Amino acid sequence: MAEILEALMVISFGFSWPMNIMKSLRTKSTKGKSLMFLLLIEFGYVCGIISKLVSGNITYVFIFYVLNFLMVGTDIFLYFRNRKLERK
Question: How large is the C-alpha radius of gyration of the chain?
Fold first, then answer.
């Protein structure tokens, strides 16, 4: 049961990142974005991934941690791209 709840948590967080990425691509703006927030979320996913690896408890949930990590990384990349565009 705990694994199912963990999966639901990570999946529900994961649904928000594609929308955030699309907004970053569409607006080409950093308005409403917080780099510190994105970095803290990314750090949290790194901790979750390392926790799974250290404990040896690698299940299907691990895939969602990695996918979310990649999506937040994409949004961080877009943050810097958009900031550069705004400065022009």
Answer: 15
**pTM, full prediction:** 0.88
Q: How far apart are CA 52 and CA 65, in angstroms?
A: 9
Under 8 Å CB-to-CB from 74, ≥6 apart: which residues? 17, 21
Q: Give me the count of residues in the chain.
A: 88
* Helix 61-87 / helix 35-55 crossing angle, nearest 10 deg: 160
Residues 31-57 have a mean pLDDT of 95
Could you tell me if 39 and 76 are in contact, meaning their C-beta atoms sit under 8 angstroms apart? yes
What does the pLDDT read at residue 74? 97
